[in-house]
Design a protein that fits this description.
There is one protein chain. The radius of gyration is 19 Å and the shape is globular. By secondary structure, the chain is an alpha/beta fold. It has an eight-stranded parallel sheet with strand order 1-8-7-6-5-4-3-2. The protein has one domain (10-310): Alpha-Beta Barrel (TIM Barrel), CATH 3.20.20. 40% of the residues lie in helices and 14% in strands. GO terms for molecular function: hydroxymethylglutaryl-CoA lyase activity; metal ion binding. Keywords: Lyase, Metal-binding.
Length: 313
């Protein structure tokens, strides 16, 4: 398939942040840096390399400054930091983040659990961050968490989601992520919300963030892609999950997503064998198996030798 550039599916890697934040085993700073550097070589244009939150809240990522200052930056790659407030934004910018990602839930209950504040307080804080960021060469993205459902409140009013997107844009935040924080989305719902979101901002400014909690992650990617979305978060090995969302499991798996795209002829520009090799090293790093499938099974083109008994026959 000779796809045009506008047909390319952009995979944005979040394992160093969203993937590691929930891990109970401490991953050494040098290993985090090596992970980011390995991903930088794979063809990604955007890598979420860490976060600048309270170390008491997310101790697994307390070395954000050291990671950002230690990575080997690659031309053409945007290194992103998640920040919860103005102090986090100041730390991220000082450490050299190219982009800062802000997060607010569409659900008031989840926002209080995740951010320890109301949605209104989060939005007020975003205004302070936008004003500060305007003085620095950094881009902005804001995420609408629980876009497709909340584990506490259930389904979220789609009008509310779109109002939040419009509010982000009015604040001067040009890029938006719609996040399925606990894997509650379905493809019909995804098509409908993506279509409405793309009436407010271009495809190059919209990211979809799916979790595979109920096994629908890649199905939802295809639904969003068919509706016009082109940018998707994913985590190497299928790592991740929100620490403040009951039942949350990993993000959609990067190598599984790239394999899907390769199989159906959608260009990603990502080196799949490189990703598979990296994913196969994760269990030794983390001390447990990871959810990804392709790293275990191999690609369809990775054939096996004919059994000796058949050769003899």
């Amino acid at each position: 398939m000779n796809a045009s550039h506008s047909d390319r599916l952009i995979v944005q890697e979040v394992a160093p942040r969203d993937g590691l934040q929930i891990e109970p085993t401490w991953v050494a700073t040098t290993d985090k840096i090596a992970l980011v550097d390995g991903l930088s070589q794979a063809g990604f244009t955007r890598i979420e390399a860490g976060s600048f939150v309270s170390p008491k809240a997310i101790p697994a990522l307390r070395d954000g400054e050291d990671v950002f200052r230690g990575i080997a930056r690659r031309v053409g790659v945007t290194y992103v930091a998640l920040v919860p407030n103005l102090k986090g934004a100041q730390r991220a910018i000082a450490a050299g983040a190219d982009e800062i990602n802000l997060v607010m839930s569409a659900s008031q209950t989840h926002n209080r659990a995740n951010m320890r504040m109301s949605c209104e307080a989060s939005l007020a804080g975003f205004g302070e961050i936008v004003a500060f960021a305007a003085q620095h060469p950094v881009s902005l993205n804001a995420t609408v968490a629980t876009t497709f459902g909340c584990p506490f409140e259930g389904r979220i009013d789609e009008d509310r989601v779109l109002e939040i997107v419009a509010h982000y844009l009015a604040l001067g935040i040009p890029n938006v992520t719609l996040a399925d924080t606990t894997g509650m989305a379905n493809p019909v719902q995804v098509r409908r919300i993506v279509t409405r979101a793309l009436a407010l901002l271009p495809a190059c400014a919209l990211t979809l963030h799916f979790h595979n909690t109920r096994g629908l992650g890649l199905v939802n990617v295809l639904a969003a892609y068919e509706a016009g979305a082109r940018r998707f978060d994913a985590a190497l090995g299928g790592l991740g999950g929100c620490p403040f969302a009951p039942g949350a499991s990993g993000n959609i798996c990067t190598e599984d997503l790239v394999n899907l795209c390769d199989e159906v002829g959608i260009d990603t520009g990502i080196d799949l064998p490189h990703l598979i090799a990296m994913s196969r090293r994760l269990p030794a790093l983390l001390g447990h198996e990871v959810p990804g499938q392709v790293a275990k099974a191999g690609r369809n083109c990775d054939l096996h030798p004919v059994p000796a008994a058949l050769q003899a026959a």
